[in-house]
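Incident log, structure service

09:12 report received: a user says their structure output differs between two submissions of the same chain.
09:20 pulled the input from the user's history:
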Amino acid sequence: MKGNLEHFDANLCKKLFDFIYPDEGEMTRSEVQTELQRLNIDMKPIMEKLDMALNFYHQKQKAQAELRLAREKRPSLIDKIKQIKLPSYQYLRDEIQNRIAQHLSDPLQATYFHKLEEAASEQDLKTLLDDILVLESLSKDSKNEKQ
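09:34 re-ran on a clean worker, output below:
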C-alpha cells in the first residue's frame, strides 16, 4: 500500500484536500459558525476548556509576579525584624537562678533549672518565681517547726 501512495501527484492531493476542507481563512465568522452547525460540532466545551486554560495561565502569571515581589521584599523585612528589640527578662531569669541555687536542694534544684530553661515568656518566669517563693516559704515554715 505504501508503494501506491508514492504514485499520487502532490498537486492532485492538494486540490483534493482543498475541495474536502474549505479554506477557513477566507470565511466570515457567520460562515464558520454555519459550517460548524452543519457538521454538528459543539464549540461550547472547547471554549470552556480554552477559557479555563487562559484563566489558569493568568493566575499562574499573577502568582509568579507576587512571588517575585515577595522575594524582593524579604531581605528588607528580615532587616526590619532584626531591628526590633524584644524586652529582656534577663533580670528575672537571674533572680530565679539565684533563688534556685540558694534555696532548693539537688533533685528539686535540677527540676527547677530545667523549668527555667523551658520558660519562654515573662509570664512563665513570673509563675516559676511564684512557685519558688512558695517552696521557700514552706521550707522556712518546716525549719521553724523543727526548732
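09:41 both user submissions now match this output. Likely a transient worker issue. Closing.
09:42 reviewer note: The mean pLDDT is 82. The chain is about 80% helix and 0% strand.
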